[in-house]
Amino acid sequence: MTNLKNDLLLRALRGESVERVPVWMMRQAGRYLPEYIAIRNKYGFFERCQTPELAAEITIQPVDIVGVDAAILFSDILVVPQAMGLEVQLIESKGPVLPDPIKTVADVKRIHVPEVEDKLGYVMDAIKLIKSRLDGRVPLIGFAGAPWTLLCYMVQGKGSKTFDEAKAFCYTQPELAHQVLQMITDTTIQYLQAQIKAGADTVQLFDSWGGLLGPADFENFSLKYMRQIVAAVKDLAPIIVFAKGAWHSLEAMSKTGAAGLGVDWCVPAGMARQLAGDKVCLQGNFDPAKLLSPIPVIVKETEEMIRAFGKQRYIANLGHGILPNVPVDHAKAFVNTVKNFDYSTL
User: Fold this and answer.
1) Which of 16, 44, 191, 196 sits most deeply, having the most CB atoms within 10 A of its CB?
2) What's the structural domain count of the chain?
3) What is the mean pLDDT of residues 54-73?
4) Which residue range is the domain that position 341 belongs to?
5) 264 is catalytic
6) Which residue in 307, 343, 278 sits closest to 8, CA to CA?
7) Mean pLDDT across the chain, nearest whole number?
8) Does 3 reside within a domain?
């Protein structure tokens, strides 16, 4: 492992004392940066993901341009269904399409748990390249989609606000749903372990659609699989679990062994801390749309967020991914406010 010049993020995740709060932004590598758009105009989406040289350049851009305290691997959660045998198309400004989704027992026979090093070797190659280029400036975060969120896309075949078809699949064919969720889980464990072995300093599990489930269903269709993943990787590297909208299960998630829990902007800091307890690092929770506010408002509200969460066991971030229309200087204002905050006042 390279000795990190800036290890704030990892210290916060380990619960060690920090001189200031670390800051990064979900989806920071990409769509709001003109430098990324220049690459996007030349290469297709999966070409960008599958070419280590391009993935490395895109991953490092926000470290250079915005000054974040960590790099997050440029990739996509849907490389896992792709590796499992489903066709995935990413259509610019329309989102993901899986033309042959899973609906029946016969469909499930079309997918398998792959050899991750073989099918997703390009991700590990990108991680090695990024690590050598970062040269210890900041840690690198690897990631994967949580099984429930991946199942949503694999069954629905496209994005949705409600994922009714995916939920219906779970409620009408629960045994089949659990079979698929377990296959995704087994693949994801291999995948995150390989990312860590390749050099990722920490990993995040994104359950973007966890909030579509009530507490009992969240336990049954999401958390019990995330628990397996956390158990399999937490001794190799710290893991952050982010289940957007599933604040009702923060207490249960805090008991998984995850080092960090992401929270969205609908949960007040005090409530998140009360539910999660003081043994886990909280990450979040600035509303990404608020980065469209005038800069003085961004500064004021970011400072309020830091005061609400406090300095220890906290990582400043957005409550979901950065929006494509956020001006770069607004993203910088958010990051710089966290860096320049007077921590002696806390």
Assistant:
1) 191
2) 1
3) 98
4) 8-345
5) no
6) 343
7) 97
8) no
